[in-house]
Design a protein that fits this description.
- The protein folds into two domains: 42 residues; 57 residues, 434 Repressor (Amino-terminal Domain), CATH 1.10.260.
- It is 59% helix and 0% strand.
- The protein has six helices and no strands.
- It is elongated, with a radius of gyration of 20 Å.
Length: 119
């Protein structure tokens, strides 16, 4: 398994894609061994290291973060009504017509299980 694709630091986009393909090949197997899992972990770490140094993700805050969290969680704005109190409040916040108060931020942070300072 390791001989055809030895784990090593990723130096460029081609190696990044090749590592992703190798991971996908292993994940497509009907049954994973402990060795497969260990190898996947090493490959995953090389992917992580490459992404940390080469890919820059925008820092989302406020309403942009709420929209991203909703999408990532497969939720809709209606799912925020029980958290924020009423549909009008949710709509005004998402339309940027109502500020995110510390109370709303605390409730959203608790709901999405993240630190309030991310908002």
């Amino acid at each position: 398994m390791i001989a055809p694709f030895p784990p090593r630091p990723i130096a460029n986009e081609a190696e990044y894609r090749a590592t992703q393909e190798q991971i996908n090949k292993i994940l497509d197997r009907p049954k994973l061994t402990d060795d497969d899992r260990a190898y996947l972990k090493i490959l995953g770490l090389t992917i992580y290291d490459y992404e940390e140094t080469h890919e820059h993700f925008p820092i989302l805050q406020g309403v942009d973060l709420i929209y991203a969290l909703l999408e990532e969680s497969n939720l809709s704005d209606r799912d925020l009504i029980p958290i924020l109190g009423e549909e009008k409040i949710v709509r005004e916040i998402l339309d940027r017509n109502r500020p995110l108060t510390s109370e709303y931020i605390t409730k959203l942070a608790e709901f999405f299980k993240m630190s309030p300072d991310k908002f």
